[in-house]
Every structure is written in structure tokens, then in C-alpha cells.
Write a structure and sequence with these properties.
By secondary structure, the protein is mainly alpha-helical. It has a single domain, classed as Winged helix-like DNA-binding domain superfamily/Winged helix DNA-binding domain (Arc Repressor Mutant, subunit A). It is 64% helix and 9% strand. Strands 1-2 form a two-stranded antiparallel ribbon. Helix 1 crosses helix 4 and helix 2 packs across helix 3. The longest helix has 25 residues. The chain is elongated. The protein starts with a helix and ends with a helix.
């Protein structure tokens, strides 16, 4: 089960509210240009809208549309399912299988952490594997 960048962005906006493209990139651990490209597609699909906020320091933020909120809820349920899959399999895997699964979902870890979908102790333990940390750096 995969979670696309657009789904990750929708979930983040659902959870955090209005955010700039730079904030979204920071939260998700992604390149800001990659996020900006995805935001354009989400805007064309009418899932998000641009809003200017601030009086002295105006900034452009992104908000969910009603349709975007519905899609964000679906994406959140999908992410929750991934988290549950990790939890259910973790005790029955050997170390190599665990490393492989965690590397597969490493891009989702920032979002999983933000949403507290896995216990913090487990995340710390999982990230303690040297091969996982080494493979997750960009």
C-alpha cells in the first residue's frame, strides 16, 4: 500500500491547517520544489486553495477545499492502515524483514510521527537500526 505525496500533503493540511509550501516541505522532509509542483496539481484538481494571510508579513498558504477535506480523510485512513500493518507485522518479522519493511515506509515516517500513529518508543527503536538510518538519508 503506497501513499502518494499529494495524499501526504492533504493529510498534513487536514491535521495542521493552513501551511506555506516551505512548511509542508519541512514537515514531510521533502524538497520544496517537489512540494510546489504537487501543490499546483492539487490546486488544479480543486482539492486545495491558495490564501494570502497576514497583515504586516503577508504569506501565501494553502488550505483544503471541502472536496480536499474528503480526500484528506480517505488518505488519512489509508495511512492509518499502513501504521496498523506495521504494528501487526513487527513482532513476527526477523531483523532483515523488519529493515526491509521500514525502509519501504521511511518516507512516511515524518507524517506518522506528526500524527502519533505509532508509539514513540517503537519509532525510536526502529530508527536505531544503522542500515535503516543510512538508507533513509537523502
Amino acid at each position: 500500500m503506497e501513499l502518494t505525496l499529494d495524499e501526504q500533503i492533504l493529510i498534513l493540511l487536514r491535521e495542521r491547517g493552513s501551511l506555506t509550501s516551505e512548511e509542508i516541505a519541512h514537515y514531510l522532509g521533502r524538497d520544496v520544489n517537489e512540494v510546489k509542483d504537487e501543490l499546483q496539481y492539487l490546486e488544479l484538481d480543486k482539492l486545495i486553495t491558495r490564501v494570502k494571510k497576514g497583515i504586516l508579513f503577508r504569506k501565501e498558504v494553502f488550505d483544503l477545499t471541502p472536496t480536499g477535506l474528503e480526500e484528506a480523510q480517505k488518505a488519512y485512513e489509508k495511512l492509518r492502515g499502513i501504521s496498523q500493518e506495521i504494528l501487526s507485522k513487527i513482532n513476527s518479522m526477523n531483523e532483515e524483514e523488519l529493515k526491509e519493511m521500514l525502509n519501504q515506509y521511511m518516507a512516511l515516517m515524518p507524517l506518522i510521527i506528526i500524527l502519533n500513529l505509532l508509539p514513540l518508543e517503537m519509532l525510536i527503536w526502529m530508527l536505531s537500526f544503522p542500515t535503516i538510518r543510512k538508507n533513509s538519508t537523502h
